[in-house]
């Protein structure tokens, strides 16, 4: 299905990537996190974000909710970069906490693994500012009933 260009001056695949980046920025949950999504190519996503003391649990490291959110988002957007007509939904996600996250800049890198019809599998890793992996996850995502073009924020 061909979509109209949602971003002036962009076309095809690039327009879809920019529209997904806009969708990410528009999600109310993302007002709670200083983060930026980039989709450099089909099947890949990068989210740079700041881990802050407000995300800590009682022992002084980032709570697992931040691990899940950023890993799920990175894997999701890597998968949804391959789907231009429908919003995907997370159906399962497995997490591995490798190291505690301390304050600072973190990068979530998502990568599509398999699936091209109804179910997609993608993985993501979290890397701290020293280049150390601090978390990893794998998710499954399926097409929803929601058209991307009907979602507020898709395309700016």
UniProtKB/TrEMBL annotation:
**Family matches, as InterPro entries:** HotDog_dom_sf, Thioestr_dom
Annotated GO MF terms: thiolester hydrolase activity
Q: Name one Pfam family in it.
A: 4HBT
All copies of the Thioesterase domain together span 60-133
Sorted alphabetically, which Gene3D superfamilies does this protein's record hold? Hotdog Thioesterase (3.10.129.10)
Under the heading SUPFAM superfamilies, the entry gives: Thioesterase/thiol ester dehydrase-isomerase (SSF54637)
**How is this protein named in the record?**
Thioesterase
């Amino acid at each position: 299905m061909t979509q109209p260009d949602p971003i002036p001056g962009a076309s095809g695949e690039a327009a879809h990537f920019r529209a997904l980046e806009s969708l990410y920025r528009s999600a109310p949950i993302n007002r709670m996190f200083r983060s930026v999504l980039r989709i450099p190519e089909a099947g890949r996503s990068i989210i740079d974000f700041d881990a802050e003391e407000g995300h800590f649990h009682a022992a002084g490291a980032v709570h697992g909710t931040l691990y899940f959110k950023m890993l799920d988002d990175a894997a999701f957007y890597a998968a949804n970069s391959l789907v231009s007509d429908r919003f995907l939904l997370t159906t399962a996600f497995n997490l591995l906490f490798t190291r505690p996250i301390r304050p600072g800049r973190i990068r979530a890198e998502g990568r599509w693994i398999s699936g091209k019809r109804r179910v997609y599998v993608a993985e993501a890793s979290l890397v701290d500012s020293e280049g150390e992996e601090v978390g990893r996850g794998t998710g499954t995502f399926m097409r929803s009933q929601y058209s991307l073009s009907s979602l507020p924020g898709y395309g700016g």
